Amino acid sequence: MSALILALAAGAVVGLALGALGGGGSVLAVPALIYLLGFSPASAATAALVIVTATSATALSVHARDGNVAWRTGTLFAAAGIAPAFLAGAVAGRLPPAVLTGAFSLVAALAAVRMLRPARSGPPDRVRPAKAAGAGAGLGIVTGFLGVGGGFLAVPALVGVLGLRMKQAVGTSLLVITVNSLAALTARTGTDGDLRWEAVAPFAGAAILGAWDGKRLASKITGPALQRIFAFALLGVAGLMLVDVVV
């Protein structure tokens, strides 16, 4: 199968994940770039940030139109992660590929387990700025370090820590992903010249189109069902990558 077809197919899946789940795009994009398109882990992380930034910004506009974005919470969350994402992104390229891959798989697995735990009984009366800022800073570090948009962690944090409804967390996470990915990408600019735009461009284009279909899919599925789908997808990807590191 040609690289173009693989890039288009993988991009469509990533777009569906971002549009429907508000995350999971980069956690799927990184292994797709490594195992299907032959990118190195460092190049895959940078390319995934390019793809996810463009796709999440597109999906954000669609979710915002339906009122599924908590702007105040998302802004606090995202702003707190900008500096950590930039700093972590600047040093991540110096680490061995096996370390990055292993850390990536473990963080994805932990996020999946968090999503499968029973949901809170209801949202809090108000969002505590310190809580949102603390969660956002932690997410920014992971975003910069692993080269992921962070939606697969933002959604569990927005639901479990800040008490947003699942569909509102999906939309809000796209704001967080866009900001954090852009900060991490800025830190990586000029550090990796092997992005292979002939693969990245069609991947990103297919992902943007897939995000529109993902949004329509999300409107037909309940929040708890989306949460379970997201969690099991993360567990599957984490398991495959961890096996690759060990073997």
Describe what this molecule looks like in 3D.
It contains ten helices and no strands. It has helices spanning 3-21, 25-35, 41-65, 71-92, 97-116, 129-146, 151-161, 166-188, 197-218, 223-246. Helix 3 packs across helix 8 (166-188) and helix 6 (129-146) crosses helix 8 (166-188). The radius of gyration is 16 Å and the shape is globular.
Spell out the key features of this protein:
247 residues, 10 helices, mainly alpha
Regions with little confidence, pLDDT below 50 for 5+ residues: none
Element pattern in H and E: HHHHHHHHHH
Number of strands: 0
- Backbone CA Rg: 16 Å
Give the helix/strand class.
mainly alpha
Number of helices, where a helix is a run of at least 4 consecutive DSSP H or I residues: 10
TL;DR?
The chain is an all-alpha fold and 247 residues long. It is 79% helix and 0% strand. The protein contains 10 helices and no strands.
Secondary-structure map:
Elements: H1 3-21, H2 25-35, H3 41-65, H4 71-92, H5 97-116, H6 129-146, H7 151-161, H8 166-188, H9 197-218, H10 223-246
